[in-house]
Amino acid sequence: MENKAVVGANSRLVRGEEKRKKSAVTKKRNFLFLLSVFIFYLVIAALLILSGDDWAWGGDIGQARLANKFDEYNGRYFGNIIEMIITRSMIARLLIYSAVNTGIVFFMRKIMKCQIPYIYCFLVILLLPVSFYSQTYGWLAGFANYNTSTFLLLWIVWLVKKNGNSILSLSSIFILSCLCQFFIENMTIASVLIATIGLVSAIFFKDHIFPYFSWLLGSIMGAFIMFSNSAYHIENNMRGFSNVDTHSFFTTLLTEWSELYVKQNALLLFLFTIVMYLLTENKGLGKLVLYFLPSSYFILRYLLNISWQQQPLIILIFELLLIVIFLVTLIVVVSKSSIAFVSKRYFFNYLTISLMLLAPFLVVTPFGPRNILTSYVFLTLALFELVIHTKLDLASHLTKKLALTLGLCLALFCIALHGVNKYEENQRIAQLKQAIRSDQKEIEIKRLPYEFIGHDLTPPNGSVQGDRQKVYHGVPLDTIFNITGYHDSSLDKMLEKQQ
């Protein structure tokens, strides 16, 4: 009996040691992966080109706004300060850009309780629609407000989801929720509403209420400070409350809103469709068509590069009907599935947050692709919450190897595009300085080869951003920029020889 007991104890010790070694190896691999993601974003940050508002924030205009405490401009205090820092210091840009974007990947996995490997969190970010990427990851001004606020909101959600009642945890939630209010107006409004709904939900389901209460207090304080800025109380101001137009609700829903939130998210819709089908027990042809018709239609539309401007009203109404069918089907399938109630609750929470972040833009302007990033991330979290309850084995060696290969290819491709743009930008700045020394009054400016991955990289001559570009580079305002399409002179010479 003693020998059996000793053998059993030794066996448990061996299994425990093996488990600790396996855990250590996993932690090391996760650390190396996150380090690789950090280095990737470090490279992208070094290759990014100043454009649009960056020229203003990196020059005297930014200094003047800061001296005025951003009064009559906007209440995005934290975002504005970050933008000023990263447009003036390359080291700060490298560190902030890399840390924030790596942090988004990190907290996505943390919120999913580490049930989704890091590679898939990174992969869905790499698969972000180009228009969303160009105004967030590809534009410093967009990054400073939209990526950073997304990072902070994910951090808050993770802390709240941990249900920690310690002074440190509650204080962290309060501080982060207050800071998160100083980036973008829709996030400020949504954060208060999300915290309120979360608090009511916690009371109803008898969860810990203090994390939500701390979130609510911090978000209310931050919102009060932000909207105290006079910019929101001036008539005909771009940030003013007078920009609310309820009469445009249906038109906006049919066009820009559904275009950006749903139709350009065709790949994400298709992944939702696959998961819905896997969660359904009685699969038939009718359900197959019902599930796959909306997402297949929008994928085909996206591949054919069809936008709402090209279509008649009747087709836009038909597309809205497809969206409603898809959403209702998704809700019914998840509700009827055998998923645990707590997971269903998380799924609907993430879906609701995604919708609430964009709901204000049905009646408020301006609205653009950059506003979708945070909603896209929470849609992804909703998708992941369903994926972990399917038979998909994301942790298998084969699937992870395929995902790593795809992620590496996409990352290298992204670096190559930014690298070529950076080289061409350096070339045209050198030519620009040469033209200034020659006292030329008209200068030819070539567009960059891959302008779709950035925002306003070559603004029209005489425009506000065009003038800011001239001032930033020390070009007299009366100088005329003759903008031409991109062409490689060496390629032109090679083609001439063949003729």
Report what the structure shows.
This protein is mainly α. It contains 20 helices and two strands. Helix 4 crosses helix 8 and helix 9 packs parallel to helix 11. The protein is globular and about 90 Å long. The mean pLDDT is 89.
Unreliable stretches covering 5 or more consecutive residues = none
Main sheet: strand order: 1-2
* Sheet of most strands: 2 strands, parallel
Structural class assignment: mainly alpha
Q: What share of residues are in beta strands?
A: under 5%
Mean pLDDT: 89
Q: Outline, from the CA principal axes? A: globular
Order of helices and strands: HHHHHHHHHHHHHHHHHHEHEH
Please bin the fraction of helical residues. Answer: 55-70%
Write the topology of this structure.
Elements: H1 2-47, H2 53-57, H3 60-67, H4 77-86, H5 90-111, H6 118-126, H7 130-134, H8 140-161, H9 167-179, H10 185-204, H11 210-227, H12 249-261, H13 266-279, H14 285-303, H15 313-336, H16 341-358, H17 373-387, H18 397-437, E1 442-446, H19 464-472, E2 480-484, H20 489-498
Parallel strand pairs: 1-2
Helix pairs in contact: 1-5, 1-18, 4-8, 5-6, 5-8, 6-18, 8-9, 9-11, 10-11, 10-16, 12-15, 13-14, 13-17, 14-15, 16-17
